Amino acid sequence: MQRGVQQIACARGRGPRARSRGSVTAETAVVFPSMVVVLGVSLWMINVVEMQLRCVDAARAGARAIARGEPPDRVRQAMLAALPADAHTTITRDNDTARVRISVDVRPTWGGALPVLAVHATAVSPLEPGELP
Predict the structure, then answer these.
(1) CA gap 115, 105 in Å, rounded
(2) Which of 1-5, 51-55, 82-86 has the lowest mean pLDDT?
């Protein structure tokens, strides 16, 4: 007789299954915004890494060009063509080396809630034989 009463209670929505109704919706409502934030931060970090690689490539190319004896103004223009407009470059030529330092502030393109990160790259190349400092 008791078994029949339990089946009727479950059928009316008062049993163990009724207590967990809507829990998936509540869990999704909590997890989904967190996943969106994690995805946004991940995409921004990919942008930061991409900018770091661009800075390293431009610094290496600039240091090699200075070491070959190319004019610093032309080298700076070539480097800035591959970098954002707000990039800062420093070209130094010593007795036996050419040094290029590039720094860029990376901002998220889709919102201002994340902080600005500074990305730096430095490359050093020995001067070619016959080049004067």
Answers:
(1) 10
(2) 1-5
- C-alpha 99/C-alpha 78 separation (Å) is 16
- Cα 38 to Cα 31, 32, 34, 55, 130: the distances in Å are 11, 10, 6, 26, 54
Question: Does residue 55 contact residue 119 with C-beta atoms inside 8 Å?
Answer: yes
The helix/strand count (H/E) of the chain reads as 4, 3
Q: Name the average pLDDT for the chain.
A: 83
Stretch 92-113: mean pLDDT, rounded?
Answer: 87
CA atoms within 13 A on the CB side of 99: 9
For Cα atoms 12, 15, 28, give the angle at the middle one, nearest 5 degrees. 100
pTM for the whole structure: 0.72
How do strand 117-126 and strand 88-93 relate by DSSP bridges?
unpaired
Q: Does 8 score more than 60 pLDDT?
A: no
